[in-house]
Write a structure and sequence with these properties.
By secondary structure, the protein is an alpha+beta fold. It folds into two domains: about 1-30; about 35-210, 3-Layer(aba) Sandwich (Protein Transport Mog1p, Chain A), CATH 3.40.1000. It has helices at about 1-30, 130-135, 190-205; strands spanning about 60-65, 70-75, 80, 90-100, 105-120, 140-150, 150-160, 165-175, 180-190, 210. The longest helix has 28 residues, at about 1-30.
Amino acid sequence: MHKLILCDRRFICSCSLSAVVFLFVVTVSTTVFIPSTFGQRPPNLLSDQSPQLKNATVSPTSTYKNEDFGFMIEYPTSWILQQDNLRLNTIAALSLIHTNIYDFTNTTLAEVDIRVFNNRGNVSAENLTLSDIGTTSQTILNSSKTTLGGLPAWRIIDYTFDGMTTKHMQIWTVLPKHNLRLLIYYIAQPSLYDQYLPVAQHMLNSFKLVK
């Protein structure tokens, strides 16, 4: 009788340990998360649409063209284009989403948002400064002048720690025909930022003004 009880206890302990290990694995596997369009739930995908974690290719590509604001930009076909129910002045969000086939959750690996703002003070692209943009709430790593589609622009690399650490590249310019400030905003988890940076840079290089 004592041997049987001892065997049962070992079985119970073994089951408990397995449950703890399982919970730990599930917890760890779901910590890799980046908010899609700043917290909005990403769209449901079929399992065969899921990009691999190391998919950082830029070919083949599709084109997002905005007739209202007069520009176009290329993006990989493996990325998802969203144009509805967006926030924070976002007119289009391009996301690389990985679907976990084991728990059916979607994880945004990287995202490029396109945002449009009123041009307060009617500042030209040539005269746009960091103080015009307003970066006081951001942890800036570096900033430099650049160009976007032939327009003078600012590049800002920064972090935010608002509940979840993310690393960003911001490209700011002014659309001259519309007198609006344009922001192209690359967002990624710090550990994935460099991996998908070439894709984001390809998008920026493809940016063109259209009539």
